[in-house]
């Protein structure tokens, strides 16, 4: 078969899928949720993998997950497995988790620690920097320097790790890093450790998972544990606050003023920076007050960990919340950090990985109780899983008609606008736009 014919056979289905996803986007009414097919169609999902997940910077974890040389974690997305490892020189690197011999998965566990990376199939052995060290019975005429593990672009931002599967990653990560690093560094994730990590597979499209996180419209009735410390008026303008929530909002304003004063005294940035629609790595970051004592995610807002992060000595720093598109949100508090990484599995299944970090010297059972530390977000995640599962069922129903967003859902609308913009720009680059 000729190369041209092969290219046509491979290219036409992809072009057809791109045409389909663009057609669905053409049918969207601005200010309303997406058409149902964009949450359910397998061809749409395949196009998203091609146009988005293999092209954008993805949150994969934190430096605290690979604290020592030889420590590694894997991140599986869009059919690719990425191996993130700290090498013998203390540098965190990322590689495709694929042996350079005949393609076997190099490591099969989600995390661990190694001296060398040894393929379980034919014992090809790689150093932690990815170079090939040993290949039994390989001809001496073969240049082994060309057979190291294939690198994946990796960028650390204040202890958060992002990777890109693109052959030529965009430089947006550096521009974002310049704006958010100051918010992250006081928490010193390089001096933190993993207290717990929970994987939850939610039965919904990845966009529904992200949309659900981008609003608290559902929080008042849906998250009783979370709203012990989350103010129920989050996302509402002053003129939108209903009378029944006015006491909560007045309390929020007082807590906000006190938090801003504390942050200014400590030289900790707190203002809102939001660029959610127009850039490849859409993001939002802000330090906001917590209700009650204002220290942590607990029933009364009091701290959950006796040892504060980094060199912080004031526990009443609320929450610094960072989220990025397509797949992350992070809450940084004085006593702990909780990160969330979203990865699509199929059109209607999504993995949400939640990771709790505490100070590297904090002792479980002495400085914190693990059950109490994780209680609020374990409950909240389970509640959200139910919400998005029911929504997936609804958008799959022929009776579904996209409904209008309200002002409290403006970040949802921003996410959807970002999604449409990124899909269109990538499809146009690949020749699929009309």
TrEMBL record:
<dbReference type="InterPro" id="IPR001663">
    <property type="entry name" value="Rng_hydr_dOase-A"/>
</dbReference>
<dbReference type="InterPro" id="IPR015879">
    <property type="entry name" value="Ring_hydroxy_dOase_asu_C_dom"/>
</dbReference>
<feature type="domain" description="Rieske">
    <location>
        <begin position="57"/>
        <end position="163"/>
    </location>
</feature>
<dbReference type="GO" id="GO:0016705">
    <property type="term" value="F:oxidoreductase activity, acting on paired donors, with incorporation or reduction of molecular oxygen"/>
</dbReference>
<keyword id="KW-0479">Metal-binding</keyword>
<keyword id="KW-0411">Iron-sulfur</keyword>
<dbReference type="GO" id="GO:0005506">
    <property type="term" value="F:iron ion binding"/>
</dbReference>
<protein>
    <submittedName>
        <fullName>Rieske 2Fe-2S family protein</fullName>
    </submittedName>
</protein>
<dbReference type="InterPro" id="IPR036922">
    <property type="entry name" value="Rieske_2Fe-2S_sf"/>
</dbReference>
<keyword id="KW-0560">Oxidoreductase</keyword>
<dbReference type="GO" id="GO:0004497">
    <property type="term" value="F:monooxygenase activity"/>
</dbReference>
<keyword id="KW-0408">Iron</keyword>
<dbReference type="Pfam" id="PF00355">
    <property type="entry name" value="Rieske"/>
</dbReference>
<keyword id="KW-0001">2Fe-2S</keyword>
<dbReference type="InterPro" id="IPR017941">
    <property type="entry name" value="Rieske_2Fe-2S"/>
</dbReference>
<dbReference type="GO" id="GO:0051537">
    <property type="term" value="F:2 iron, 2 sulfur cluster binding"/>
</dbReference>
<dbReference type="Pfam" id="PF00848">
    <property type="entry name" value="Ring_hydroxyl_A"/>
</dbReference>
